[in-house]
Each structure stands twice: as C-alpha cells, then as structure tokens.
Amino acid sequence: MDRLIYTAMTGASESLEQQAVVANNLANASTTGFRAQLANFRDAPLSFGDGTTVNNDTTRTFALTATPGSDFAPGAVSQTGNPLDVAITGPGWLSVQTADGDEAYTRAGNLHTDENGQLVTASNLPVLGTGGPISVPPGATVTIGKDGTVSALGAGDQPSQIVVLDQLKLVNPDPATMTRGDDGLFRTTDGQPADADPTVTVAQGALEGSNVNPVAAMVSMITNARQFQMQTKMLQAADQNDQTANQLLSFT
C-alpha cells in the first residue's frame, strides 16, 4: 500500500509545483518581454538490486521534476511612439548590467534615462553598449537605429550636429546555453558574456509583449487542479484501504 501512497504523494507535490509555474506565467501575461516558464516532469522508477537490468526490480514509480526551461517564442510587438522604447525583431537580446556588475540579458526594451543620464531598463539596470553603460547628454533627443546605434541631438542643435553615443550590445546566444535567474533575467550557463551579434536588429518606438497565452495558462491551471484533486483522492483511498486491512487483521 505504501507504493500507492508514495506515488500519489509525489504526484500531488509536482502538481503543486507546476501550478506555481503556471500562476507565475499568468501573473506576467502583460509584462514587457516576459518569457513563459516551462514545467517539465517525468516518471522515475525506483529500483533495487546490484545495478544490472536482470537483477533490478522496480518497486515504485514517482514523479520527478525534469530540467526546467523557458518558451523562447516571440511575443506580440506594439507601437508606443516612445523614442526610448525598443523591440528586438527576431531572435536576440538586450545586454544589461546587474547590481553585482555581471552581464545579463532581457527582451524588455522599455528604456529610460535615470538621474545620472544613463540609459536604463524599467528595473533601473544600465543598458550596455560596446563600451559599457550608455550615457545620454541632458536634454538631448535620442534616436536608436535599427542596428542599435544610439545617437543624440542636443537642444537647439542642427540635424547635422547629431552625435553617435554608442551602440546597444545586442547578442544572440544559443537558447540551450541560457538560463533564467530569480530576477527574471537570462544569463549564459557558463557565466561568460555573450559576443555581440551584428545580425540582431531592433525597432524604435515599439515594445514586445509577453509570450504567455492567458487562455492556455488558465486551462493549465484547471488541469493541474484536477490532477492534484485526483492525487489527494488516491491518498484518501489508500488510507481507507489501510484501515479496512487493519480491521480484517484484528479479527484473525
């Protein structure tokens, strides 16, 4: 009977874990540049023996979390008209500097300038260019080109006096080599900065939305709730069977 209890218990635990992932995705359905998390689970037979296939005997099968991942499908792009908003067109990432000085990557292009004149994300993380964080002169009108070139025109200056400040560091590492951090930013698995990719382009005055499908997320939440309910009923059934067996044994 303990086999049924163990299987149902681990199944219920993984259902709750998957429900948490889906709930987080749904909460970020309107977050700029958000990439949906994927919750993968697999069955894991528990065997005993000397390690050979012939002598091993499977005693239980329980649920186990597989390698978690992310959905890298693009989100919908909407026009905002804000000159500091940029959307990655196709594969690619913006490079930002984290609080500890490391390099991380995001698709959220809702940028602005902080009190120090640095170009930063909505989370106030400095946006990286080819020469490090990008600074914008006070009162300048900023233009971001398709290739990520950041130009500025001072107040009262002629169009011919436009100055190139830097170029956004746009990267496109293999998604298989990227991992999501607790802060929602992506990093390379080896911890090394990715190389700039000149093929990555951006669209100024636009933002990419989340790639979460709210309807699909709601259906997943209902499915997970039903699965959890099924697992708890199995636990109750196992408990009732144990009680019945104890009563029968008490009469012998």
UniProtKB/TrEMBL annotation:
Domain Flagellar basal body rod protein N-terminal: 5-35
GO BP, sorted A to Z: bacterial-type flagellum-dependent swarming motility
Subcellular location: Bacterial flagellum basal body
Domain Flagellar hook protein FlgE/F/G-like D1: 87-152
Gene Ontology CC entries for this record: bacterial-type flagellum basal body, rod
Entry keywords, A to Z: Bacterial flagellum, Cell projection, Cilium, Flagellum
Family annotation (InterPro entries): Flag_bb_rod_N, Flagellar_basal_body_rod_CS, Flagellar_FlgE/F/G, Flg_bb/hook_C_dom, FlgE/F/G-like, FlgF, LlgE_F_G-like_D1
Superkingdom of origin: Bacteria
Leader peptide range in chain numbering: none
Residue ranges of domain Flagellar basal-body/hook protein C-terminal in the record: 203-248
KW Iron (keyword) present: no
Similarity field: Belongs to the flagella basal body rod proteins family.
Quaternary structure annotation from Swiss-Prot or TrEMBL: The basal body constitutes a major portion of the flagellar organelle and consists of five rings (E,L,P,S, and M) mounted on a central rod. The rod consists of about 26 subunits of FlgG in the distal portion, and FlgB, FlgC and FlgF are thought to build up the proximal portion of the rod with about 6 subunits each.
UniProt name for this protein: Flagellar basal-body rod protein FlgF
Origin species: Trinickia dinghuensis
